[in-house]
Amino acid sequence: MDDLARALEAALFAAEEPMTAEALAGFLGDAAPGDVREALRALAEHYGERGVRLVERAKRWHFETAPDLAHLLRREKEQLRRLSRAATEVLAIIAYHEPVSRAEIESIRGVQTSGGTLDVLMEAGWVKIAGRREVPGRPTIYATTPEFLEHFGLSSRRDLPGIAELRATGLLDPVDDAYEDLMGEAVTDDEVQVTPDDSSLA
Predict the structure, then answer these.
(1) What are phi and psi of 138, to 5 degrees?
(2) Which residue, 1, 91, 98, 122, has most beta carbons within 10 Å?
(3) What's the per-residue H, E or C state across 135-191?
(4) Domain 3-73 identical in fold to domain 85-197
(5) Structural domain spans, the chain
(6) How many CA atoms lie within 13 A of 113 on its CB side?
(7) Residue 184 φ/ψ region, left for φ over 0, alpha for ψ in the -120 to 50 degree band, beta for the rest
(8) CA-CA distance, 154 to 160, in Å (whole number)?
(9) H or E element: which one contains 61?
């Protein structure tokens, strides 16, 4: 392991939060970002089969426990926190359409969205306010966070699964239901019919 890789290893172990290659280059002083990125990739390969892994999430690097050993560090009792159907639908819409306003979320879902639903997602650290849309009324727009990518093990939004994959896992059934609703397969008389332009989450 060369001196740059050793310095990056030390910096990431001491860092309080994940760091970008550019931030690491600045932290090390005279390192070129290109050299840092190359060294990070080599360091990630070095840690590939060890108990901790060096991973990149949303262009930020950090060490995390190897997935097959995570169970050793969990408490004996875990509280499973499941999102409500509404929160799951809203999170999926934001992830696939961001940045998106509350009105746009409601247009895609076909029903009104409670402000509390967005609050839950922001408290979880998965959704953030991303500014305001430059249209009359300047509505607030929302986007996912690096913590969202990290929690779901995604390097970027390009890694988001398609609807078929979500259905196969059985982990996000409410998303399936919402998708079918939006496709007009399960719209009841008192629901709003969504236009075809808004009928895709993927």
Answers:
(1) 40, 65
(2) 91
(3) CCCCCEEEEECHHHHHHCCCCCHHHCCCHHHHHHHCCCHHHHHHHHHHCCCCCCCCC
(4) yes
(5) 3-73, 85-197
(6) 27
(7) left
(8) 7
(9) strand 60-65
Per-residue pLDDT of the chain (202 residues; tens, 9 = 90+): 588 988 999 999 888 889 999 999 988 887 888 999 999 999 999 998 888 889 998 889 999 888 887 777 665 444 445 778 888 889 888 988 889 999 999 988 888 887 788 888 998 889 999 999 888 888 999 999 988 888 888 888 888 877 666 556 554 444 445 445 544 443 333 333 333 344 333 3
Tokens of 180: 């079918």
Name residue 1's amino acid. Answer: M
Closest to 194 (Cα-Cα) out of 123, 133, 131, 109:
109
Annotation: CATH topology of 85-197 = Arc Repressor Mutant, subunit A (1.10.10)
C-beta of residue 81 within 8 angstroms of C-beta of residue 91:
no
**Exposed/middle/buried for 28, CB within 10 Å: 0-12, 13-18, 19+?**
middle
Q: Kindly report the pTM of this predicted structure.
A: 0.47
